[in-house]
Amino acid sequence: MSDSPVELPSRLAVLPFRNKVLLPGAIVRIRCTNPSSVKLVEQELWQKEEKGLIGVLPVRDSEATAVGSLLSPGVGSDSGEGGSKVGGSAVESSKQDTKNGKEPIHWHSKGVAARALHLSRGVEKPSGRVTYIVVLEGLCRFSVQELSARGPYHVARVSRLDMTKTELEQAEQDPDLIALSRQFKATAMELISVLEQKQKTVGRTKVLLDTVPVYRLADIFVASFEISFEEQLSMLDSVHLKVRLSKATELVDRHLQSILVAEKITQKVEGQLSKSQKEFLLRQQMRAIKEELGDNDDDEDDVAALERKMQNAGMPANIWKHAQREMRRLRKMQPQQPGYSSSRAYLELLADLPWQKVSEERELDLRVAKESLDQDHYGLTKVKQRIIEYLAVRKLKPDARGPVLCFVGPPGVGKTSLASSIAKALNRKFIRISLGGVKDEADIRGHRRTYIGSMPGRLIDGLKRVSVSNPVMLLDEIDKTGSDVRGDPASALLEVLDPEQNKAFNDHYLNVPFDLSKVIFVATANRMQPIPPPLLDRMEIIELPGYTPEEKLKIAMKHLIPRVLEQHGLSTTNLQIPEVLHSWSFCCYLS
Fold first, then answer.
1. Bias category Basic and acidic residues: which stretches (predicted)?
2. Superfamily designation of domain 11-162
3. Of 60, 140, 305, 329, which is most buried by a Cβ count within 10 Å?
4. pLDDT higher than threshold 80 for residue 287
């Protein structure tokens, strides 16, 4: 590191340094991939035998809050025509960048002249894009008087800000500056003493305290640890030596205190760390090392993606607060910890449930609905008439709390297909929940999350699969439920089918209320006797009688045989079966 005065040219090619600051005396490694930065390095450094100086100017993202003065480059020639002069106030952004559709660049009005210590050139595969890695050493501060474009990169007319050698010699006699220098060195030495206990690589830093001038030490020490971008800019803007030393002393002392506090906390909990906690600590350190080395990829974090999905789920406010608490708990856990997978599965369920999503009902045409019922079902005149009446009420009052229809009849008479026809007429999604053989109340209400392998009940799981909150839900074989020591599913269904209670249905796994009032429930049963009387009171029973032999023959001729022919790639032109043969086959089958 040379302390001899730097001859600063009047113009410097400017390399942007996004959201970071290079200070005099500091050394940084920059990877240049932007076409304008690559062109600058190529023309100003790579192709020249005697490499001159370049300017490094901090630039900020457009959404960041401005600290210090900003400037906006114009688009002038190499001589500076059309360039942007720096005034006392900040200019918001580059008009040329905005005109070209790019993000406006917010240049800082002060920068650092730097020289290249090392250059390496690379080619990315398979794109063939040229990149450069530049190791730069900051030399002195400068102020930008004018900034203009030279081809793909910018050139600045600059003036030196650092003090000359004569001015420094005079300033060193100032008693206030001498006191500030001693205070800074004492704080820096205290920091080095703390770091010596942790690492053995601070010997060179200790030597710097005795050999490097104090005006350089301030910048070097501040650049050696992590501070915010605003604090880096504040340090760069500290042109006056007294201000710079005061600022550096404050930052070094703050860094020292943070190390001491962290060390104190570590000593308290070190003896109490379990195996999983130690693993968590090591993983956190590994993640920090990878970030420092630039070895982390830009893949979307799974937990962040889940949180965004939850934000878009449209949960009610009280449920969203509950989900946020669970998300904070998940973020504190490692994937290997017990309970991580169950907590994540619970949050995924909350994100997947259709809190606000509904199927839009089309204009209900009763004539079309009747034709559809007649086409899909033979006979059943009274049953179809009751369904048309049900649909007519829905047409007059879409938000009416209609009765729960329960189709009772022997197997094969079309109970399930009638429920599907109701969904088709209303343009709603249809889902079937099989209740045959269900004896555990948890199949309806879900298992509590304290149990291993817990899961939501069949109703909540069905709504998750259908992805809307207003489907037509068929409770199939409602008479086949039983009861034992694990509870009575029929009793749980009382809450589900009661319009006064199902507005806040509480699934034990979900543990938050879910509105089932938009769901149209339809049930089927083979017999009424096994259904408990309280559950029967919740439903309107529609009995479907069995078909007569004549009706079965008509169904076979109109529906079954054409369907079988279609399944085998045939049509009535390929195969014709006389009606007499139909009757004979039918009689033989039934005999």
1. 94-104
2. LON domain-like (2.30.130.40)
3. 60
4. no
